[in-house]
Amino acid sequence: MTISNSGIATPSAQRAGMPLLHKVIFLVLLAFLVVLPFLVYPVFAMKLMCFALFAAAFNLLLGFGGLLSFGHAAFFGSASYVAAHAAKVWGLTPELAVLSGTVAAAFLGLVIGALAIRRQGIYFAMVTLAFAQMVYFVALQAQFTGGEDGIQSVPRGALFGLISLRDNISLYFFVLAVTFGGILMLYRIVHSPFGQVLHAIRENEPRAISLGYNVNRYKLMVFTLSATFSGLAGATKAQVFQLASLTDVHWTMSGEVVLMTLLGGMGTVFGPLVGAAIIVTMQNYLATFGAWVTVIQGVIFVIGVMLFREGVVGVIARWIKRPL
Amino acid sequence: MFELLGIPPQALLGQLLLGLINGSFYAVLSLGLAVIFGLLNIINFAHGALYMMGAFVAWMLLNYAGIGYWPALILAPLIVGVFGIVLERLLLSRLYHLDHLYGLLLTFGLALIIQGLFRNYYGISGLPYRIPDALAGGYNLGFMFLPKYRAWVVVASLVVCFGTWFMIEKTRLGAYLRAATENPVLVGAFGVNVPLLIMLTYGFGVALAGFAGVLAAPIYSVNPNMGADLIIVVFAVVVIGGMGSIMGSILTGYFLGLIEGLTRVFYPEGSAVVIFVIMALVLLVKPEGLFGRAT
């Protein structure tokens, strides 16, 4: 089961460290993000960064691991719940709350991943979706999740117990550090020897097996890593909105992250970030149209699959003949 | 009257009946998925949306055209089936040369569109659909009360399921279908119009979903979200049964409905997740599914 794409990082890019083009893009992006909270509403910008990290984490699995999960909301949402609970009930500081949410997602990813990789292709997608629905039902019924209400008014607290994050701007730079750091770590994973083995497995699984790679172990590792970073995104999101709710674990959230990655360009480094930016901005401006947002997302899905499988960044990468 | 583990028999049988009804829907829907998967190799994510559409078409026929339940039972699946054929011709058929996951993504998008549109025009509160007069009321069996309509749902789904099984496993058309599943190129070389076969198969599978929707309309209120959550459970059913066998997907559907009903008696909190737990166990013990072929 391979999803072909054009924007795959080539081995040469790996040998020379981060290519200049990518360095420039990351620096420009960072500079842009530093001034962004002074241009737009900081909470919107933080939401954008959380979803960019979420989509990048998902892309690690789909674009670089070749595995389509339809249940990533489970990791995003459970981390969101655990982080909110940790900050509100246990009174942990923000960085520890985010860390506990991330660890919870990693553990859940390990368990679900171990079961899901026993099936392939379409079944894999269905299995992950079904387990995510199970997590949803647990979140609906469990005591600590607050059912329909979710966990509300989560305290933002003080970073390391010292720096108050109550102010939007100081929280913004915390979120920027976490998400940007997360995205750079994902970049490093993709361009590591581990990432190259993933590439080999995606292109030709039987051959990777014959070369002596324990394919299932690699799949489980990439699944767990993807779940971990999705959890990091979800836990950070809980701090931003001071809320963990059923929306975070619902299957529509799983669908949204697939859409972001597909639209931006799966298997590209920057595609998921662009896709997340487009979708979050669209939701923001179309919020008044209610259910039409769902219809428009569906239409984008259909157009994306029918005509635009490389995604925005994939197309640009083809034009400039460089992996992005 | 006997008692089983402290559970009054009325409650037990009542829940078993409810389970059997849920199982009927699981069976008809997973059968449709299996039929489509067999020939097209795609998982139809829009199946839940088309099931919902079947219920809505029945409601519209009644409220806009005055057409009652019995004609709707034939008409609504036909309309949904034709709608499915249009989707197949316009969109799905252009993706067959790609990875099957694109079919999944496309049908997911279609499901969002269909659900979103109905939600826009009809809200999410749900619309009532009256049980037809002939099936109103029920039988008093002495030990429990059996609503006529619920009995009808079980009978109708059994007839449709086994009719489909018979058509696929025992008729000439079914033989073409099974052959095309194994090797579409060779079957085409024998002069069978395979693209036509694929189109009709998709239409038929989707019509099954529409039929289930009409059956469901009087039981559950007709609402745009009725298919979304159901289809995920049906996916789990399909993973448990494996899609290799028509009979397998039918039996798994009824069986899991009954298990769910039993769970509701003995451990109500677990009833929403029991099917997913069984899926996890099946993945551990027999990953290819109870009736699946190892791949």
Instruction: State the major sheet of chain A.
Output: 2 strands, antiparallel
- The oligomeric state is heterodimer
Count of alpha/pi helices of chain A: 14
Radius of gyration of chain A, taken over Cα atoms and rounded to an integer in Å = 19 Å
Q: Can you list the strand order of the major beta sheet of chain A? A: 1-2
SSE class of chain B: mainly alpha
Rg of chain B, Å, rounded: 19 Å
Strand content of chain B: under 5%
Q: Report how far the terminal alpha carbons of chain B are from each other.
A: 50 Å
Mean pLDDT of chain B: 90
Provide the helix percentage of chain B.
over 70%
Helix content range of the residues of chain A, please?
A: over 70%
Brief characterization of the structure:
The complex is a heterodimer of chains A (324) and B (295). Chain A is mostly helical and 324 residues long.
Write the layout of secondary structure elements.
The complex is a heterodimer of chains A (324) and B (295).
Chain A lengths: L10 H5 L4 H16 L6 H23 L8 H16 L5 H23 L4 H21 L16 E2 L3 E2 L3 H23 L2 H11 L1 H6 L4 H27 L9 H14 L6 H16 L5 H16 L3 H10 L4
Antiparallel strand pairs in A: 1-2
Chain B lengths: L8 H32 L6 H19 L3 H22 L9 H23 L15 E3 L4 E3 H23 L1 H11 L1 H6 L4 H23 L9 H16 L4 H21 L7 H12 L10
Antiparallel strand pairs in B: 1-2
